[in-house]
Amino acid sequence: MTEKNTPETAEISPPVVPPADPDADLRDRLADAVAAEAAFEGWTRAALQVGSKRLELPAGEADRLFPGGAIQVLTHLSERADLRTVEDMEKEGVAALKIRDRIRSAVRLRIERHAGEREAVRRALAVLSLPFNAGLGLKLLYRTVDAIWYAAGDTSTDFNFYTKRATLAGVYSSTLLYWLNDRTPGAEATWSFLDRRIDDVMKFEKLKSQVRSWGSGKTRARSA
Q1: 136 within 8 A of 70, measured Cβ to Cβ
Q2: Rg of the Cα trace of the chain?
Q3: Within the chain, where are the H helices?
Q4: Calpha distance 223→220 (Å, rounded)
Q5: CB under 8 Å to 11, separation ≥6 — which residues?
């Protein structure tokens, strides 16, 4: 009779580590080249081809690296920016800050990843606002705010998990749009705008807490 594995005798397999992507560096270089061209060509196949020529890649190499075209490049850059923002937050030790300051720092770091690429970002938002790309736009926005909350130390699993991300999506999106037209030195007007948005959210959260407390108090009074 074959002995059945039990929790005490079953072997635990080590986690599977995905193999390193041998094209990672080249894919990043091509994505950066396409982003530079997107300011002029938009997020189009033309920008992908021009970026490929700039790197002197063999014919067909750009399509191999990004078979989904320029939209896949845009997705790659957004996800890479999310990852690097999390890394930056860890390097700067934001975990020691108050939650308000962690979020402020994260949003600023994420937007500053696009420094010098305002027109490319503007065109990216325009492309993602098209009906057939709207789903992707929402998915990328969710991934960004989820990464920020993760790096900020959020461990919520209840309804707050979703409300936090929905609230931050509004703060991040409005701040990004403000930044696109900000010409103040160091984008200081943008960071002041970000402070005001976060202040508004904090006031709203405080009000919600007070309303919940008031409602709980009335319930206890009725049952007394």
Answers
A1: no
A2: 23
A3: 24-41, 45-54, 61-65, 70-91, 99-112, 118-128, 134-151, 159-180, 188-223
A4: 5
A5: 5
**Residue ranges in the chain modelled with pLDDT below 70:** 1-19, 204-224
Encoding tokens for residue 105? 């720092």
Residue type, 75: T
Q: By residue range, what is the domain housing residue 83?
A: 24-212
Measured distance between the N- and C-terminal CA atoms of the chain, rounded to whole angstroms: 64
pLDDT, tens only, 106-126: 999 999 988 888 999 999 999
CATH number at residue 144: 1.10.357.10
187 assigned to some structural domain: yes
Residue 1 covered by a domain: no
Q: Do 45 and 68 touch, CB atoms closer than 8 A?
A: no
Mind listing the pLDDT tens digit for each residue in 198-208? 988 877 555 45
Report if residue 137 sits inside a domain: yes
Domains contained in the chain, number? 1
Q: Give CA separation, 185 vs 129, 179, 182, 191, in Å.
A: 29, 12, 9, 11
Does residue 143 fall inside a structural domain? yes
pLDDT at 8: 41
For 108-138, letters b (16+ CB in 10 Å) and e give bbbbbbbeebeebbebbeebbeeeebeebbe
